[in-house]
Amino acid sequence: MSINNFSKVVIVAKDEWRYWLRSKLAMTVLAIGLVLTVASVIVTAITMMELSHSRHELQATSDKSFVDQPDRHPHRMVHYGHYAFRTPSPLSTLDPGIDAYTGNSIFLEGHRQNSAMFADSRQGTALTKLGSLTPAFIVQTLAPLLLILIGYSGISRERESQTLSYLLSQGTSGATLIAGKGLALLSVVGLILTPLTVSALFTLGSGEGLLAVTSFVLGYALYLIVWVLLILLASSVFSKNSGSFTALAFVWILLCIVMPRVASTSASTAVPSAGKIETDFAVKAELRKLGDGHNTNDPAFKQFKQSLLNKYNVSSIDELPVNFRGLVASESEAKLTSVLNKFAEQRMQAELKQTKVSRYFGWVSPMVAIRSLSMIVVGTSIETHHRFLRETEQLRFDFVQGLNKVHVEKLSYQDDMNRNTNTAATQKARVSAQNWQILQDFTFNVDSSKARAQRSIPAFLQLFLWIAVLLGGIKFVGRRLL
Amino acid sequence: MSYLLKQLAREWRFLLRQKYLVVLLVCTFVMSGFAVFSGLSEVTQQKQTIERLKAADLTDLTNVQHKYEDPGSLAYYSFHLTYSSPSNLAFAALGERDIYPWKHRLNLLALEGQIYESDAQNAELAQAGKIDFVFVVSALAPLIVILLFHDLFANERTSGRHDLLVTTAKSYFALWGARITVRSVSYTQVFEYR
Question: Considering only residues 28 to 47 of chain A, which have any Cβ-Cβ distance to chain B shorter than 8 Å?
Fold first, then answer.
């Protein structure tokens, strides 16, 4: 494009702005859009910071109350348990994603894997069904509508008032006209994205990676560009304003409101996943083969007992230098955990498969693409939740086995066996509270920003495809504007 | 009577000739069809799940009863299945069953501890929401009404036909009444429960 051509584009864009400044509708819409974006950025930032703060605090309280427990039998502490909290990532102030839909705390105890509990969505009302006022919702759902309201008549207006033929006959090419209107709409996109970008840059200060922030802002820019192109296309194709508006509004309904729901409904129908209760039956059947870790006489531990006797070269378990009950507890916990992990992994894979199916709809709707892109990059997608589940399981296993080790080494088998004879014996079958220090500090961190950016590549491709197809369409229409 | 029919037939032809309106109506029809269909299949899935759970629960309970004799162990190891089965109209309003669990297994041990158990569905899908008939009627239908009726008069005015139409029409209702009726009927047909 020569300089001359470009200045023409700028003139058209300026003129479009002049039209908007004169019309009350465009200015009102723009004002509402900006106020909503800024308000949601502030409100969501405060909410997520409070959440993050309170979860950090709860984690510290939980750590403290575990360590502060008095002298006890180590296995009592295995059942006393511990809590882990999922602290949100810095960028989640812009897109809380599934944070409200999954449990954000988990109770860790011996012999079982609990579900993450206390999801915020269960404590709210159904009023937020259309989405809550987060920056992600505003930019994903409302911003396209605002762009439509401002831009639907861009070219159809010229056609309807018969100024289009003048413009074209005076040497402005169709491409220049469309590019000018597009430039004007892009400047609106820039306005909408400014609060988002500024607050995304702020998260760099709280440890967010530059790559994640860049892909986040870039993703939203691409998404809104898709809408700008859609608006330009519809406005060029339709001969009347009302046709252009109806078509765009309907496309908005389809792509922004209907498609995400169709995607999730189709995914859960196409890949039905068995719920936890149902898989628990299979888990239980497999666990039954392992034997009860509380019962040293369980036939399942016969071989283990024999191998121990051989190892220490003694004839009975009383002569072992270590506590046999602790060893059985430790051994059975390890086996049980491997079974539980196998099923947990299966369930997570099934969930991931479901989610992938719903993400394929990004090829059909840019809204689905940006939704998954945003959640993945921010670290509030299902993958992050799975990471949380895996990390807390490791934490659970470590502290239980740590306590079992204390059980093996610090408590004699004789004391342990006599623990129920009288009060003095019970007192003797305890270990010092010093041992509770085995608990590691737990802070949940999301995947590295590189890993998240890599995971979002398919969604980026979906947006690029949309842009390419729409550019092709506009080029085709631009030659036959009249 | 034939006069009335003639007016209506003319308006029907007028409606069908506006391609974007036809596309709009067809798409809406497909959407509400999808909502009802997916609602029905979801409810069927839930009912099947309950049947499977009931069978598995019974087997588990029988196992426990054969394995243990004393009342304490029986109480400790027996689980009791509770569930809320979908009602007959649940296909139209799936509600929040993807957020709140509708099935649970209780046992007498540590009732309090069972708050740490939950059979929830895929959170990322729950966040996107579900499309059921209630959603189509409450959220989409008003938007479709707006799209169908927003330019009822204005469209004719901008095309410069409004005054001509009004002066040549036999009565107000012969023109606008017929047009409104046709649009309303086409609209309700689309949402008609099959």
Answer: none
Residues of A in contact with B42 (CB under 8 A): 265, 268-269
**Residue B164 Cα, gap to closest chain A Cα (Å):** 19
Q: Which residue of B has its CA nearest to A157?
A: B158
Tokens of B30: 């497909």
Backbone angles phi, psi at B181, to 5 degrees: -60, -45
Taking only the tens place, the pLDDT of each residue in A300-336 is 777 777 877 787 777 777 777 778 888 888 888 888 8
Q: How far is B148 from chain A, CA to nearest CA, in Å?
A: 8
Element (H, E) at A85: strand A82-85
Which residues make beta-bridge pairs with A117?
A: A105
Query: What is the spatial distance between Cα A288 and Cα A111, in angstroms, rounded to a whole number?
Result: 13
The set of residues, in sequence order, having a beta carbon less than 8 Å from that of A406 and lying 6+ positions away, is A74, A326, A431, A435, A438
Closest CA to B156 of B146, B165, B167, B144: B165
Measured between beta carbons, the chain B residues lying within 8 angstroms of A98 are: 123-124, 126-127
How many other β-carbons are positioned within 10 Å of the β-carbon of residue B154?
A: 12
pTM: 0.86
Dihedral sign, Cα of residue A393, residue A395, residue A398, residue A402? negative
Distance CA A145, CA A188 (A): 13
Q: Which residue of B has its CA nearest to A100?
A: B127
Tokens of A402: 């740590």
Q: Residue B114 carries which side chain, given as an amino acid letter?
A: Q
pLDDT for A437 beyond 60: yes
Shortest CA distance to A200 belongs to which of A227, A219, A225, A223?
A: A219
Report whether pLDDT(A73) > 70.
Answer: yes
| Contact criterion met (CB < 8 Å) for A269 and B120 | no
Q: Is residue A83 a contact partner of residue A58, using CB atoms and an 8 Å limit?
A: yes
Q: Count CB neighbours of A386 within 10 A.
A: 18
Distance CA A421, CA A208 (A): 57
Our CA-based measurement puts residue A66 at a distance from the nearest CA of chain B, in whole angstroms, of 17
What is the distance between the alpha carbons of residues B187 and B5, in angstroms, rounded to a whole number?
19
Q: How far is residue A92's CA from residue A315's CA, in Å, rounded to a whole number? A: 60
Please indicate whether, in this complex, the C-beta atoms of B120 and A240 are within 8 angstroms of each other: no
More confidently predicted of A146 and A99: A146
* Contact residues, A window 131-160, toward B, CB-based 8 Å cutoff: 160
Say if residues A231 and A147 touch (Cβ distance below 8 Å): yes
Instruction: Determine the residue of chain B that is closest to A357 in CA distance.
Output: B125
Give dist(CA B156, CA B163) in Å, integer. 9
Query: Hey, is the C-beta of A278 within 8 angstroms of any chain B C-beta?
Result: yes
> Which residues of chain B lie closer than 8 angstroms to A114, CB-CB?
116-117
- Return all residues near B107 (Cβ < 8 A) that are at least 6 apart: B75, B76, B77, B78, B79, B80, B114
Identity of the amino acid at A3: I
Complex-level ipTM: 0.81
